[in-house]
Amino acid sequence: MRGLKGKSVLVTGGASGIGQATATRFLEEGCAVCVLDQSAEARERVAAELPALAGVIDADVSDSEQVRTAVGEAIERMGSLDVVINNAGISIRHDFLEITEENWDKVVGVNLKGVFLVAQAAARHMVAQGSGVILNTASTAGNIGYPHYADYSASKGGVIPLTLAMALELAPTVRVNAISPGYVLTPMQRAEYSDAMLAAVNRKIPLGRHAKPEEIAALFAFLASEDAGFATGQVYVMDGAETTGGLCSQWTHE
User: In which domain, by residue range, is 110 found?
Assistant: First the structure.
């Protein structure tokens, strides 16, 4: 991609799944990359698998003090901050009537508040330096809702208008976009679904499969590049046409 070589990139939730695939892609593009992740096990593994990383940072994105410290550390390690990929997220499969207040606060705290905190801390630096790109991971669940994921759907639904508002306020200095993936075969996704459930979902996707994390990473790379220099304030759905035909309405409760 044009204009990525030498850029400084921070990927939250970067030690597994879409985040790790995205960190890998930006390294391949010649960027300096720091990943932020709360899981000690995942941090240790990604540091071994991606030794070229500029840093592997421990932080809870729902904690404002930890976020400020982490963003500052990333800038110190890389010398600047040109691109932020707000990818940290969690989901818990449970029925709506079983969601506790603690569940709600945890999911919304990471998936929505975390995006806000990281984006705000990064944007302050980007505005001061005169340029930057912020890309948020939303979800098709934020547009249509999914059974058993009410809190997740609500949190991702919030990411979408937050992205649009940020794009308007931060233009023309900082570009802000979001990607709404559909089903992506990540470790988190795999842990929540049996083989039968995965097969049932694949039957509802016109392309007949889940996305690969690397495919989402490729779109992040494009949106961060000079090739997408006029793209801001948009949410890009990447779901194999799952929602195009309203196939989610055919969901069967399993």
Answer: 8-237
Catalytic residue (choose from 149, 152, 183, 236): 152
Q: What is the pTM of this model?
A: 0.94
Q: What angle do CA 23, 34, 180 make, to 5 degrees?
A: 45
Whole-angstrom distance, CA of residue 153 vs CA of residue 176: 21
Give yes or no for a contact between 40 and 152, defined as CB atoms under 8 angstroms apart.
no
CATH number of the domain that residue 88 is part of: 3.40.50.720
The yes-or-no answer on residue 146 being catalytic is no
Helix (H) or strand (E) holding 118: helix 114-129
Other CB atoms within 10 A of residue 96 CB: 10
**CB 39 within 8 Å of CB 15:** yes
Spell out the residues 6+ positions from residue 51 whose beta carbon is closer than 8 angstroms to its own: none
Average pLDDT over residues 115-136: 98
Give the C-alpha distances (Å, rounded to integers) separating 20 from 33, 97, 216: 11, 34, 11
Q: Average of pLDDT values for 170-190?
A: 92
